């Protein structure tokens, strides 16, 4: 069979930029230099306007970070008209908190500095992540304009973001450790802080989003499963209550029966919910 068809252009094509170095940080016991990488899913260059950016932080208990692990699932957001950047950050065997927060902000500054290349609207940056990455998304948003966490290059760019979407994100390390239905991951909080959270209240407070909710009014969409045995859903409920009390536009969506890192989060219904929230709160 031979035939000629006329195809209507309905969406842009996508490019993927792999292993982009956004920062260099101390490596092996402080004696070497280590590259930090990110991956960008962007649109073909003929777009007429800049696009909102979603910055994604994968989970892994701050023990192992692979910025590419969820890229197939993040394409939905690129197809919906966003630029998507998935960011590597230092795990806790390399550096204790707040190095991870410094990395997140360095990545955002790098992306804003290269906004023209990636067709990014610098005023529309959304941070999103799962578990440890959800914690990082919350902390990145709630520390907007706190320059003590801005380290490295492109310091003329702001690391401020406009929305946060944590998926089953850790809130306070101590609370997560004490309220978790499982003790299997208690060690990750010690590794993150460099001390047991119950023995180091000041360190725990520096990594607790609840301590920063009064800093700004960033909109939050919180997703959490009712059967999460690793990160207690009650902590997300507490974060939601604190955000709303402090004037943040916030929604909490609890996924009935969903466990930690559940496939339910990857369903079109959830992608659509996230996209609608972002669009509603874009300025």
UniProtKB/TrEMBL annotation:
<keyword id="KW-0378">Hydrolase</keyword>
<dbReference type="InterPro" id="IPR050300">
    <property type="entry name" value="GDXG_lipolytic_enzyme"/>
</dbReference>
<dbReference type="InterPro" id="IPR029058">
    <property type="entry name" value="AB_hydrolase_fold"/>
</dbReference>
<feature type="domain" description="BD-FAE-like">
    <location>
        <begin position="45"/>
        <end position="243"/>
    </location>
</feature>
<dbReference type="Pfam" id="PF20434">
    <property type="entry name" value="BD-FAE"/>
</dbReference>
<protein>
    <submittedName>
        <fullName>Esterase lipase</fullName>
    </submittedName>
</protein>
<dbReference type="InterPro" id="IPR049492">
    <property type="entry name" value="BD-FAE-like_dom"/>
</dbReference>
């Amino acid at each position: 069979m031979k035939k000629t068809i006329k195809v209507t252009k309905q969406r842009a094509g996508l490019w993927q930029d792999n292993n982009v170095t956004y920062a260099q940080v101390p490596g092996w016991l402080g004696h070497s230099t280590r590259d930090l990488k990110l991956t960008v899913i962007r649109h073909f260059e003929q777009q007429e306007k800049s696009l909102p950016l979603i910055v994604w932080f994968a989970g892994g208990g701050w023990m192992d970070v692979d910025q590419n692990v969820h890229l197939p699932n993040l394409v939905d957001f690129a197809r919906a008209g966003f630029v998507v950047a998935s960011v590597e950050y230092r795990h806790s065997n390399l550096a204790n908190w707040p190095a991870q927060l410094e990395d997140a902000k360095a990545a955002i500054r790098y992306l804003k500095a290269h906004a023209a290349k990636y067709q990014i609207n610098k005023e529309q940056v959304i941070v999103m992540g799962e578990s440890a990455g959800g914690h990082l998304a919350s902390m990145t948003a709630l520390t907007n304009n706190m320059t003590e966490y801005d380290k490295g290059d492109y310091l003329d760019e702001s690391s401020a973001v406009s929305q946060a979407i944590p998926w089953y994100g850790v809130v306070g390390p101590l609370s997560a450790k004490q309220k978790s239905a499982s003790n299997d991951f208690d060690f990750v909080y010690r590794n993150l802080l460099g001390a047991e959270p119950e023995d180091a209240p000041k360190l725990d407070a520096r990594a607790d989003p609840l301590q920063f909710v009064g800093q700004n009014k960033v909109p939050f969409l919180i997703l959490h499963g009712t059967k999460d045995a690793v990160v207690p859903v009650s902590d997300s409920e507490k974060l939601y209550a604190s955000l709303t009390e402090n004037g943040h536009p916030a929604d909490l969506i609890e996924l009935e029966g969903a466990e930690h890192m559940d496939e339910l989060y990857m369903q079109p219904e959830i992608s659509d919910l996230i996209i609608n929230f972002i669009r509603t709160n874009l300025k």
